[in-house]
């Protein structure tokens, strides 16, 4: 009898051990049940609100263009490009298939027009034309893309082209794509493009081209203003979406949904969940000056450190933020030359020892190396002060 009783107890314990993880897995996948992988984050803090296989390496299709747009926006920010600058289309760029704006060899469009083609119409030809404009060739541009991946600390991504067209060893993950979206959204002007539902190119010609956003949630979900869809036969239906409501911005990523309808429904469900459960508390705006940093051997002795992005604290609705601690760490060995936008420090916000937010602080302006005469006069002045 004891043996039978012991056997029953062991069987019950074994059943419990097996069934509990299965129940937990079912609960954790209910927001994106039909996607291969998914993630939901709050943009300012990067906090993960929902996760399903977010580090699985999968083909990202045209969501690749999020990184393409990051490098375009960086070039604009660094004054290497201007929105009105003309971009000539090469024969190679014009030969791209898939989604396109039907650029002809030798045709010129402005950077602004090319960016509209990429962000609204997912144009492969415009993506390659911009890649060649920035780096000289798509191959060199892909090197820049992968260097940026490493700079962002991402582990699940490798790019082979600027478009997302099928190619061996071209992959990313939901987590990495969310972090790339977070980076792209630092450039606040990008949503003027990604959040536009329809536009036109070549308006003054007989080849007027109608652009309609491939992300239908821009029109049908209040607050959605980006970012990028993707589809290939291998990748299935993918979407990295962002929405802002009541001051909180979130990013939802879905890989491998079986249809556009399912993809949009699951992303909408994720966004609904975020806005129903969470709220952000703004701490600093982007570009806010926090502290001075000394610059060694520069034509300016000190420089302001600025916030590189909006900084917020995330809580569940109803929770208060109290006793938060802000720690600013500056580069104590900063030497000229310094470029505007260079990382020169960090700010960390903690509560009860837990990191709630961490962000880079950047240089407010360029600082050139001081000439020998200026350095001499500065040293001579210091010598006089000490005597």
UniProtKB/TrEMBL annotation:
It comes from the Bacteria. The keyword Transcription does not apply. This is serine-type D-Ala-D-Ala carboxypeptidase. InterPro entries: Beta-lactam/transpept-like, Peniciliin-bd_prot_C_sf, Peptidase_S11, Peptidase_S11_C, Peptidase_S11_C_sf, Peptidase_S11_N. Residues 1-24 form the signal peptide. GO terms for molecular function: serine-type D-Ala-D-Ala carboxypeptidase activity. Transmembrane segments: none annotated. Pathway: Cell wall biogenesis; peptidoglycan biosynthesis. Residues 278-369 form the Peptidase S11 D-Ala-D-Ala carboxypeptidase A C-terminal domain. It comes from Heyndrickxia oleronia. Its EC number is 3.4.16.4. The active site is at residues 62, 65, 122.
């Amino acid at each position: 009898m004891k043996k039978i009783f012991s056997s029953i107890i062991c069987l019950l314990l074994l059943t419990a051990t097996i069934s509990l993880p299965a129940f937990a897995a079912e609960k954790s996948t209910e927001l994106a049940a039909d996607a291969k992988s998914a993630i939901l984050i709050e943009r300012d803090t990067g906090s993960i609100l929902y996760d399903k296989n977010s580090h699985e390496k999968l083909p990202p299709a045209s969501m690749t263009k999020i990184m393409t747009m990051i490098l375009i926006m960086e070039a604009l920010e660094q004054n290497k490009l201007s929105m009105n600058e003309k971009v000539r289309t090469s024969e190679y760029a014009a030969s791209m298939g898939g989604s396109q704006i039907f650029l002809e060899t030798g045709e010129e469009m402005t950077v602004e027009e090319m960016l509209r083609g990429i962000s609204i119409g997912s144009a492969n030809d415009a993506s390659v034309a911009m890649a060649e404009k920035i780096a000289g060739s798509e191959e060199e541009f892909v090197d820049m893309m992968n260097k940026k991946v490493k700079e962002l600390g991402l582990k699940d991504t490798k790019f082979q082209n600027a478009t997302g067209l099928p190619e061996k060893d071209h992959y990313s993950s939901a987590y990495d794509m969310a972090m790339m979206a977070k980076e792209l959204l630092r450039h606040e002007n990008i949503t003027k493009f990604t959040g536009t539902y329809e536009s036109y190119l070549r308006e003054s010609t007989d080849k007027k081209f109608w652009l309609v956003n491939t992300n239908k949630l821009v029109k049908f979900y209040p607050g959605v203003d980006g970012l990028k869809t993707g589809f290939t036969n291998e990748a299935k239906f993918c979407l990295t979406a962002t929405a802002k409501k009541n001051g909180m911005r979130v990013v939802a990523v879905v890989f491998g949904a079986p249809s556009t309808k399912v993809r949009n429904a699951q992303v909408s469900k994720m966004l609904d969940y975020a806005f129903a459960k969470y709220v952000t508390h703004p701490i600093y705006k982007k570009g806010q000056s926090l502290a001075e940093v000394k610059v060694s051997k520069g034509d300016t002795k000190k420089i302001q450190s600025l916030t590189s992005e909006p900084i917020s604290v995330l809580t569940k609705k109803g929770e208060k933020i109290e006793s938060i601690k802000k720690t600013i760490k500056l580069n104590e060995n900063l030497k000229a030359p310094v470029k505007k936008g260079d990382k020169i420090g960090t700010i960390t916000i903690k509560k009860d020892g837990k990191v709630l937010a961490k962000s880079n602080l950047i240089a407010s302006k360029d600082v050139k190396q001081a000439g020998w005469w200026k350095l001499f006069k500065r040293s001579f002045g210091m010598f006089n002060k000490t005597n």
